[in-house]
Amino acid sequence: MIDAPERPNRFARKRGLDFFTTGDNHDYLADEILLLEPGEADAALAAGDTAYDLLRNTARRCLTDPRRLAGLGIPDWCRPLLEWSVENEWDDFLFGRFDLAGGLDGLPLKVLEFNADTCSLLPETGILQPEVLKKNKVKYPAPNNLASSLEARLREIGAARKGTHGLFAHLGYPEDELNVGFLADRASAAGWKQVLTAALPEATFDPDNGLAADPKPERTQRYYYLFKFFPWDWIALEESALWEMLEEMIVNHFVRVVNPAWTMLLQSKGLLAYAWQDNPGHPLLLPTAFDPADLPNPRSGYVRKPVFGRNGENVMVSLDGRRSDATHGGDYGDLPVIYQQLAPFANDREGIRYQLGTFVTPRASALSCRRQDGLILDDDAEFVSLGLTSCR
Length: 392
What we know:
- By secondary structure, the protein is an alpha+beta fold.
- The chain contains eleven helices and 20 strands.
- It has helices spanning 9-14, 38-62, 66-71, 79-89, 122-135, 146-160, 174-189, 232-238, 240-251, 263-267, 270-278, and strands spanning 2-3, 29-36, 96-101, 110-115, 165-170, 194-199, 204-206, 210-216, 219-223, 225-228, 256-258, 288-289, 302-306, 316-318, 326-327, 337-341, 346-347, 353-360, 364-372, 382-388.
- Helix 2 packs across helix 11, helix 6 crosses helix 7 (174-189) and helix 8 (232-238) packs across helix 9.
């Protein structure tokens, strides 16, 4: 760990990223840089590749078992689109991020969850982290090919389908808009002909004619690709009419959604319980179950999580398997839950916990890190830039 006294405030303002450096987020970028050993960085990248393949295998099995689909928290009426998506869009995955425990100070790497649908931290990792390292003269950056790998992937996707017209849609939150903007910039750099970012209400979904939006007043443009920054689980559980429209448009080839519908299987934390059943004892996986009594050693502590949830909402931590030691409120309290054995985290001298992240696009391409005191990582966590101690 080294100090990072030079902050990229001016750079962020010029790039339109001062959301991450001003106001309530003025201290979001940590004032220190974490230096990984080259072997730690390589192991975190390898973990992303291994876990991606492992979870995809389990996800495919879940579609053949109605009980497993229910355990994932996915309504059975979603099955037709998910099956179609697996058979027709299996290779359309664009990006996701694994959250990992350990990986530092000799602690074993463990998968906490997979943000396979609308994962964040894109501008921080792809733009701000390199600038922090540059300003603070860090000689060896941590692996970070996020921007270039996304651009390469977008070239592949566009070349394989109906042209390069993409609508990048979000729900209007500033952070989501910045993440979507990062993706849209990658599409432009990849040579896409039409790229538009817009809030969801600005898009028109027409099962008979396709997806449309107005890039300029009184000028309507149709788009074949929808890059959405609103989750499939939100569509299924809160906006079923939108699901039905998208299903009709997708299967009739009026629109292609990225990430595709089957990634809802990966997003569910229930998949981690089934992955443990399919791969008991796998070194990257934590024992995970739908009932704490089914954990190998519940008295060693566990984390209870809703199968769909973000920012630590509705998470409960028990250090001894008997009482609640930390809880977080949220909007996911009515969903099914899983129980995951406590994982060892690296802590600094002040007791702050560090959580690595590995982006997959779809192969491992970049590392990120967040830190926070307390037992639950939420939206108050700091983003920590990563360098290396020496050349890899």
